[in-house]
Design goal:
It is a single chain. It contains 8 helices and 3 strands; from the N terminus they run H-H-H-H-E-H-H-E-E-H-H. It is mainly alpha-helical and about 140 residues long. The protein has a single domain, classed as Winged helix-like DNA-binding domain superfamily/Winged helix DNA-binding domain (Arc Repressor Mutant, subunit A). Strand 2 and strand 3 form a beta hairpin. Helix 1 runs antiparallel to helix 8. The longest helix has 16 residues.
Length: about 140
């Protein structure tokens, strides 16, 4: 249970320092409902794609840039799926892609502030998974 306590403390600390302050939340509440629903639907569609959450978790909880091959072996994702998700996340501003002019070519991906802001979500999901141990059901 020590891990659950550590995770809860971490989530609490992150939420206290998170960029989403009360003023930001009020702005979201005052936004046009139709626009907010559309944005939320688009976000959920992106996050609901195959391996999307697992991939974002690697970046949100990690501190180093990651290469395609690292992600492919860690997540056991097909190259085409991984390539598609990485491209979508770069386009959505969730990841930054940096190419190096080397032989063999090297490409690294880094989390943006948007992805780092998801860390509390992933910490909470870890806490939830520990608490409700899905393997028992």
């Amino acid at each position: 249970m020590a891990r659950a306590h550590d995770v809860a403390d971490t989530v609490h600390a992150l939420l206290e320092h998170d960029a989403l302050e009360r003023a930001d939340l009020e702005e979201v509440r005052e936004a046009d409902d139709e626009t907010a629903e559309e944005v939320t639907a688009d976000l959920l569609a992106l996050l609901g794609r195959t391996h999307a959450l697992a991939l974002l978790r690697e970046f949100a909880l990690g501190s180093e840039p990651l290469r395609f091959s690292d992600l492919e072996s860690t997540l056991a994702v097909s190259p085409s799926t991984l390539s598609a998700r990485l491209s979508e996340f770069v386009e959505a501003g969730l990841l930054e892609r940096e190419s190096y002019d080397e032989i063999p070519p090297r490409v690294e991906y880094r989390a943006t502030e948007k992805t780092n802001a998801l860390a509390p979500l992933f910490f909470y999901l870890d806490l939830w998974a520990d608490r409700y141990d899905l393997e028992e059901t």
